[in-house]
Amino acid sequence: MKRPISFEIEKRGAGLARAGVLKTPHGEIKTPAFTPVATKASLKGIAPSQFKELGVQGIISNTYHLFLSPGEKLIEQAGGIHKFMNFDGPIMTDSGGFQVFSLGVGFGKKVSKFSSEEMFDFVNPTDGFTKSNIAPVVFDEEFSTSHGKLAIVDDEGVSFTSHIDGSFHRFTPERSIEIQHALGADIIYTFDECTSPTADHEYQKEAMDRTHAWAKRSLAAHRQDPAKDASQGIYGITQGGRFEDLRIESAKALADMDFDGYGIGGSFSKQDILGILEVVDNELPEGKPRHLLGIGEPEDIFIGAAAGIDTFDCVVPTRKGRTGCFYTHAGQIIIRNAEFKEDFSPIDPDCDCFVCTRFTRAYIHHLFRTNEMLGPILGSAHNIHFLTKLTANIREAILNKRLGAFRDEFFGTYQI
User: Which of 156, 248, 340, 391 counts the highest number of beta carbons within 10 A?
Assistant: First the structure.
């Protein structure tokens, strides 16, 4: 049977880098590509009609949040997520696995994909960047009696209460697939357990084994529905934390299950990410697409593309944009700062997005200072375009066999 998604490698670059085309029922994604996070079937403040102008080829939405509101049945009644949000391009939905982590281990701790000593979360325009702290796995009495703060994992699935109204729910691999079938995305993901980056080897091994068992159950649930199997691709998710032996074991186990593509999940340190990605991608089938879940700032995209990653997603660019942190080719700027009050230059002179070609730093500074809603919208739009354009340029560099040179040129001016 012809699979609903396919992947063609157009050219290989140095090492594991490659440029390709990911074909889905709702169109193609030229890779490497940045796929912005539309958590609730929405890129905050950005209309789907603007996606193409911003370089957006595809998006990823959140199964957990759409399950809670408006519910997968309503979206199914609307004709699926594409019709519901009026976007006819490729859409992915995650499995809800990361919410196991964020509601349990990381609840109230400003969860990130990076380990605590390296996590900075832009929380508001006045406080700047604040360190986060993530504890090891937490299953205590406080969680078991607190509405909206419960996520208890067992071998069958996860039980949790809604952060919205405290209602009780349970996800299993089969239930996650059922929800994603109703949502109707082009690419869905297996249910997994995303652990804390500080979890020790013993727990990472336990969680990885559970993730592999859930992957088999997710795949079986998907393949047993011929209509959905013919219209939606399914990705398996590798885990293993920061441990190379577990990452290799996980990649081999997932590769043997014959998914349509693969997600690299879990949490990382910036120092670990390159080595881990190379280890994982060396074990995964070369001819199938690979997606790096939840990580996608400029430096991460270069690292991932060099290690053979095809698509990326990350909430940080729009989160930063909404709080006034803008990417530029010289590095990130905080537009609220007083230095921009009388600056009539564009946010980034080297950017051709509609934000940079139509508005000045002084005007956008004014918007943020007076709490006008247009400011966060422009911030999100610019940062999305910055990353979609960057990944498009990385793709061109791979096609022209000059990825290393382009990386050096970019970081010659971009200050991290």
Answer: 391
The structure tokens listed for 99 are 């919410």
Task: Please report whether residue 96 resides in a domain.
Answer: yes
Give φ, ψ of 163 to 5 degrees.
Answer: -75, -10
**Is 331 inside any structural domain?**
no
**Residue 155 bears catalytic tag:** no
Q: pLDDT tens-digit profile of 219-250?
A: 999 999 999 999 999 999 999 988 999 999 99
Residue-wise pLDDT for 178-197, tens only, equals 999 999 999 999 999 988 77
Q: Which residues contact 32 (CB under 8 A, 6 or more apart)?
A: 19, 301, 304, 305, 309, 310, 311, 312, 391, 394, 395, 398
Structurally, how many domains does the chain consist of?
1
Q: Determine the structural domain holding residue 146 and report its residue range.
A: 6-321+384-413
- Residue 12's CATH number: 3.20.20.105
**pLDDT grade for 162, boundaries at 50, 70 and 90:** confident
Q: Does the residue 310 lie in any domain?
A: yes
Q: Report the alpha-carbon distance of residue 358 to residue 293 in Å, rounded.
A: 33
- pLDDT score of 416 more than 90: no
* Distance separating alpha carbons of residues 281 and 251, to the nearest angstrom: 8
Catalytic, out of 94, 281, 300, 310: 94
281 is catalytic: no
- Any idea how long the chain is? 416
Instruction: Check 165, 313, 350, 352 and give the catalytic one.
Output: 313
> Rounded to an integer, what distance in angstroms lies between the CA atom of residue 161 and that of residue 19?
42
